[in-house]
Design a protein that fits this description.
It is built from seven helices and six strands, in the order E-E-E-H-E-H-H-E-H-E-H-H-H. By secondary structure, the protein is an alpha/beta fold. It has a single domain, classed as Rossmann fold (3-Layer(aba) Sandwich), CATH 3.40.50. It has a six-stranded mixed sheet with strand order 2-3-1-4-5-6, sandwiched between helices. It is globular. The protein starts with a strand and ends in a 10-residue tail after the last helix.
């Protein structure tokens, strides 16, 4: 069983209400010919700093932090999100930064270069998606799952390690080499 943190689902509705709690979805997917059970946690940003959310950071293999490319404040908060994830996770993880709503180019507040610069500075992959029209959503999930299940050497080097030596000692299930 692989546990990841993803945004919700693969459908879009104009009536979607913002997530105010932690929602868990279970999904069976095929990756590289293997059937894999995945837990998908939708953590809304309002609860990202609560104790309830911190406990959800443990024992996860990957995190997708998504921001709205039409909302500068959502981008301004991503460093704090990544800092908390890294602080509270207890194993090697694969973080991914996602800029969503690329279908609304006329309202764009965050340029692709700014987001890519942030991602490169923190050695995090960056992908742009549109939940509304489905652009790159499937590819995002496939890439994250493939990188976790069958990581290349480059992906292994990109994995974030836990902060403390106690956490490093408990990281025996990681696919990464602990240095």
């Amino acid at each position: 069983m692989y546990t990841l943190t993803f945004p919700q689902g693969n459908t879009f509705t104009d009536e979607y209400k913002s997530t105010t709690e932690i929602t868990v979805f279970k999904k069976s997917v095929e990756v590289d010919g293997k059937q894999v059970e995945v837990d998908i946690y939708d953590l809304c940003s309002k609860n990202l700093f609560g104790e309830k959310a911190y406990s959800k950071f443990r024992n996860k293999d990957g995190f997708i932090v998504m921001f709205d490319v039409t909302n500068y404040d959502s981008f301004a908060n991503i460093k704090s999100f990544f800092d908390r994830i890294r602080q509270y996770s207890n194993r090697c993880i694969l973080p991914v930064l996602v800029g969503n709503k690329i279908d609304t180019t006329e309202d764009r507040a965050i340029g692709k270069l700014l987001a890519e610069d942030f991602a490169n500075e923190h050695d995090i992959p960056y992908i742009e998606t549109s939940a509304k029209d489905g652009t790159m959503v499937t590819e995002l999930f496939e890439k994250v799952l493939t990188d976790i299940i069958n990581p290349s050497e480059k992906v292994k080097q990109r994995q974030w390690r836990p902060f403390t030596s106690a956490d490093l000692n408990s990281c025996k299930s990681c696919k990464c080499a602990i240095s």
